[in-house]
Amino acid sequence: MLRLTNVQKYYGGFLAIDIPSLFIEEGLWWVQGENGSGKTTFLKMIAGLHPFNGTISLNNLTITKQRQQFVKLVNYAEAEPLYPSFLTARDLVELYCQTKGGDILFAQELLKQLHVFDAYTQSIGTYSSGMIKKVSLALAFIGQPKIILLDEPLITIDASAVNAICTMINDSYKKGVSFIITSHQAVRSEQLGFTGKLLVENRTIHKNSE
Ligand SMILES: Nc1ncnc2c1ncn2[C@@H]1O[C@H](COP(=O)(O)OP(=O)(O)OP(=O)(O)O)[C@@H](O)[C@H]1O
């Protein structure tokens, strides 16, 4: 599914990530690593949000050569999302559905499952941090992604939303969507049955099976 070859990410002169070769099969992957090890950097490179050296390809698409097609297949939710405070959830859903080719009713249903739909037409400036996080998680499911990248999806949200997001992940996974998820929180196997772990250490990433 996802192949990384000679991928290096520098911040100025600082080498944050160095991956000579990594192949990630379809599945539900849990990214683990210490603070500052490079987990967010890894997700942002795959999401097309950070320039890097090397090659990242999804099936036959390469992020640098077929960027538009590639980023349509990869959705990403940030650990600590920020949106302009004057926008409403409806504005964001409409924008995401337009750019990702998604279904507004499906997005609204996800917001209902996360118990944040009541605030659909309110400006984000009136939202709590948990409500913003829930909206960002729902937005990550819009369109026809092949991979969804979730950076710390379980922080900030309440227990019932944790159950709802796990159900959303499992439902999408059954339909063929792969997930790469970072979480410092322990995740019970009955909540999410991970395919395996991607361990981030010493600036590189390897699968736990290696
Ligand atoms: N924009 C940036 N400019 C400079 N250095 C950065 C930048 N973003 C991240 N870094 C550095 O890159 C390294 C990896 O950071 P990253 O945010 O990817 O770690 P992380 O594993 O996601 O950490 P955490 O678990 O704390 O969220 C860190 O040393 C960090 O200081």
TrEMBL record:
A family per Pfam: ABC_tran
Single annotated GO MF: ATP hydrolysis activity
SUPFAM superfamilies named among the record's database cross-references: P-loop containing nucleoside triphosphate hydrolases
Residue stretches making up the ABC transporter domain: 2-210
Protein keywords: ATP-binding, Nucleotide-binding, Transport
Superkingdom of the source species: Bacteria
Entry keyword annotation includes Disulfide bond: no
Protein name as it appears in the record: ABC transporter
